[in-house]
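Hi R.,

As promised, here are both runs. First protein below:
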Amino acid sequence: MLLQSVLALEALDPACRVDQPLLASVERMAVRADLDVKLSGGRASLKGVAACAGHDAAVILGMYLRFHLREYNHGRYPHNDIIAGAIRQLTPSRRMTRRCNFALVALLFFLPAALGPACGASAASPASESVPAGFAPADDSVFSTCLAFAPPGPGRATRGIGACDRQLAFQERIWLHPEFTPQVRKMLDKLPPRQATVIRAASLYSRNDIPWNELPDNARGISVIGQPEARGYLYDLTKHYQSPEIPEHMAGAFTLTPSPTAIDGTARGVDGQVGGELLMDTYGAPGALAFAADLLRFMHGDLKPPWDTELGIYNHHDRAFHEWFHAQLPAFSERVEHYLTFRNVLDEFSGDGDPMVLFNIDAELKPESLKPFPQLYAFYRSVGPAVVATTDVTDAHGNRWMETQFNRGRLRWIFMIRHGRLTPFDTSYRPAGESIDLAAPGKGVYYTQSSVTITRLDMTFGLSGLKFATDFHSDRDRVETTSTMETVPTLIAPPGIHKIIDLIAGEFLRTLAHGDGGFKASFLSQREAEGLFRYTASARAEFGYAPTLELLARVGDSVADQHSAEVKLEERQLGQDLFDAFMSDYNSARPKILALDEVRKDTGGNAKGRH
């Protein structure tokens, strides 16, 4: 686990998890570069923080940067010998971050992510009960907000539904039905597990059994294309990078170039770069931010006294939100609560007559709910109680905008809302600045800091101080971000072996943070033509040659998880269960959404409400 702890690139998180842009290209050839920024069109700013919660554009780019090839990667399970014991300290940690993303974190984030394609502000009902300014009345339909994806004009609801339909179908393909050509599978069989790819990048460059494309300046690369295929999404190799020109098509490339430190033609290090493009006909990142902003308006309880006086107490505020959740999404809420126990959802405070909401999720996976998925259940029981991972998103003044934590099976997710807008808070969870409208154009800098550890036999391994600075700019047609690793991550290991671990992995991490300009990731979403949006993402870093670390990686590679394929299959089955429940609610709401076009006709296009 030390290997993945040493990397813990699963925790590289400049945008509420920039862990995907680092090497997320050809599975195993990429340490997930989560430009999500999860590259997402959304996590592209403090705005990305909320988009993180609300829109699946994040999912799209995240999945594309890793080309979904992750589905074919080999996992690891703990072994008993000392070396493998050290190596495993991060393997389960990394897999926990990823799989509990699916089995636990995804359950929570799926809620806003699922709402994302069809949520935001809806037309206000004349009979709606009065609520504080900025918040949506409880009887507003969250589904009617798919209008946000269509420009104003005749048939807006029909056009909005069309965009939602295409987006949801696309999400199902890439999340749940990835497919690979024989050439891709053959290539993946030749690559080391993704967890060790970063460590072994320098030696991988010299391997001739990998189907590299030879490029200028002695660079070697692999190019991938992806496109819808029946109900799935098919990935194939290509000789040259091909920019997508058809909606829902993608292109990606992973490239290694000898760094200037090469000696006698032998690469002592390589510059690695992963990049990709995705063309969509649904919406761009600005649209995703707009409905993320609308989604925040629904994140409240009853907004009535008695107000909370302390954090994390489940009471009438939480019950009001749950009642709304059940009414809006009856099938989906039933499935979410089948898998999760909620200790708290939100806290509401008077705010001197200006109510504020601390969205304060405290949830825990019900292990017994995973029994229909025996391999996933066994994995979670083995690893879940050992992993702790945290991420904080802050601004230049040290104010917090979001906190996430996975602590031995318990998930926390915290952000603040005032006037229906995202609001910074201090360490005591009090408002600490002006609220922001995620949909408004803007620019600035935000910071993410992460840590991840795993404890076995009273020994804790991991990384802390994974800190990124992200510059962002957004306007009505584009969102652009650039993320940079600010510091060298700190290794966490037992005192008796910490110095040894630093000798083995310290220089590798220092090169990663500062070599050849340091780790950088970029994201761009821009409107190309009417109804077309292009997402572009890339990440680059230098990876030093670390023979001892590579030896450990090889030992770790030999400890293959025989059940990896079954676990991945069960992950997708769980995801399909949630997706099908959401689609049931979505399809039930379609007639009401489409009827909004008739309402607009009757009112001459002046229907009351934000849309």
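And here is the second one, sequence first, then its structure tokens:
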Amino acid sequence: MGSPMQKRVSFPFSAIVSLDKLKLAILINAINPKIGGVLIQGPKGSGKTTAVRGLTDILPRLEVIKGCPFNCNPHDASNMCEKCGERYRKGGKLPIEERTMVVVNLPLGATEDRVIGSIDVEKAIKHGVEALEPGVLAEANQNILYVDEINLLPDHIADDLLDAAATGWNVVEREGISVSHPARFIFIGTMNPEEGQLRPQLLDRFPLSVSVERIVTVKDRMEVVKRNLEFETDPEGFIKKYKTSQDEMKTRIARARKILPEVEMPEELLEAICKTCLDLKVDGMRPDIVISKAACTLVAFENRSKVAPNDILVAAELALRHRTREGGFLEPATPEEISKVFMAKVKEVKYVEETKTYERVIESLESFVSVLRVTQDQLRDEFLKTVNYIMNHIWSELYPYGDFSEIRILVEKDYVLQLKGRRGWVNVDLVSGGERSLASLALRVAFSLAFTPNLRWLILDEPTHNLDVNAIEHFGRVLRDRMENIIDQVFLITHEERLSDYITGSIYRLERDKEMDGVTKVISS
């Protein structure tokens, strides 16, 4: 028999860092074992075995017919051995036993008899299936069959495994006697490409394939180390920490299995799948079938009811990246090739349901944006009217001279602040520093009062930046003599020591040692 991995404390599946494609490929097979399996390629220490072992803890418990050596499903007549099926058809009561799914590990040195089972020919003539000495495939039924270093298995053993995974049955034939039993398992093979490649014919038999790349971000690598150290130090505590996410994943898998039969594959998208495989010159019909199954399973996993183009793109990358093309004369298609060809075929078959939906959304958004722009323009105009009214109301308080009688802000290509002199309007960047600083102060006050009509205090941060001495002094006098007619209190933040001569209230001096990155301290008040 194969050796089920001993019940051990497994690293939680949901705690695995990164490896998103690997986890998705495994989950798709966990939901729908009829897909037939996944090949995981990657270097040693990349998390392949950890992911496989962690899968058992998030899979629903299974029910088997008690005493059956083939773990027959008591609720599915198509998944029963000859003996159990006969009892079921006669209406006999089948004893049911609930079990936890296990990972059945296939040793590298396993013989064919050990894998598929052996037949006692004389006994088979009299008793049928009872003459079969169950092998690894019998134990793997409704469980997980894990083959590490599958590239080192003899080809005929690998063929037996892939045949059973694809058909769901294990057929044992010896000397004209044929005995079969269900073998529906989640088939996962792993390999390190550095230790040798699978023959293209065997590689093509794997429904899905994913390559595990090394983790290249320092942040993710640090997280891997932290989680592994935490797991080693306190396994039970670590598992408890991820219990909620594990339970959520288990619920999603159970729900996906339930709704999978109801998932709809649009005819146009199925046509696009087949046309894509033809254009990419992929060998055989398996890719078309696998892509369809995997896309539907992905939809069920995401709790949706209808396949969309993006579901097929995800499934196609998993199903085609390892496929032979043109009888092996072409390299497998790249993700870019797959995407380009498939999207072209989607347009070709005129799958417009999703496109029309997007077009309707875009049309609605464009109408909304148009209305929003008009509303925005109206609000801006009203706001600027208010700001201009306030600025002109306070301008005579801030600017006691007669050179410029009015102030305004208007929109040209940009916002422009202007003063009105004897010769008309002029931009503030063409007037003196003092007048420019007062115009800027008027704008700040007006904006503040427009937003907050009951404003009683105002904060000015470095208002004299880039002003000359005369402008600073002029600004200081306005602060001291005129601002109190407009605002109750002004809080001034500045490096300009000369403004201290114009302050009528409290002055606080702050200091910080920048070279030592020290804290800011109040040194006087």
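A quick note on the second one: Residues 377-524 form a domain with the Rossmann fold fold (CATH 3.40.50.300). Let me know what you think.

Best,
J.
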